[in-house]
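User: quick one, sequence for these tokens?
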């Protein structure tokens, strides 16, 4: 009877270990901007997107649905990862503000080192989180808009 009990406990520990590993490793490296942020906001009701370049405060304002859709679809598929801190010197940054139904809902600060932070203007525990784009294409896209 004692032998069956120990086999059961060991089997249970192994199964829990496999489940934990599957849950933990299945999400690693697969985060996209769309999954992390657009699903929390209804992008179909974005009324405007404001972009500001930090170095000279040059501003771009998208109010046309077509321009908004192009911008949203371009950054939606960007792969991202959560980072703890940014150690690279910042030479340039861009501020992006998303307006929904005339109200400022959330914004992004994107730095030239690929690191960005998201600000929910209604308050959120995620405001302190830093993320990084896995490749330079999104930063170059935003840079080329100016």
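Assistant:
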């Amino acid at each position: 009877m004692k032998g069956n009990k120990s086999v059961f406990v060991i089997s249970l520990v192994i199964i829990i270990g496999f489940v934990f590993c599957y849950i933990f490793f299945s999400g690693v490296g697969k985060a996209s901007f769309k999954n992390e942020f657009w699903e929390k906001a209804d992008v179909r009701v974005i009324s405007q997107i404001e972009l500001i370049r930090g170095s000279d405060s040059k501003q771009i304002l998208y109010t046309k649905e077509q321009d908004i859709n192009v911008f949203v679809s371009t950054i939606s598929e960007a792969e991202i990862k959560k980072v703890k801190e940014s150690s690279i010197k910042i030479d340039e940054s861009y501020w992006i503000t998303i307006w929904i139904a005339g109200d400022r809902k959330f914004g992004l600060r994107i730095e030239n080192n690929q690191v960005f932070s998201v600000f929910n203007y209604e308050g959120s525990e995620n405001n302190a989180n830093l993320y990084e784009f896995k490749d330079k294409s999104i930063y170059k896209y935003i840079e080329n808009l100016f």
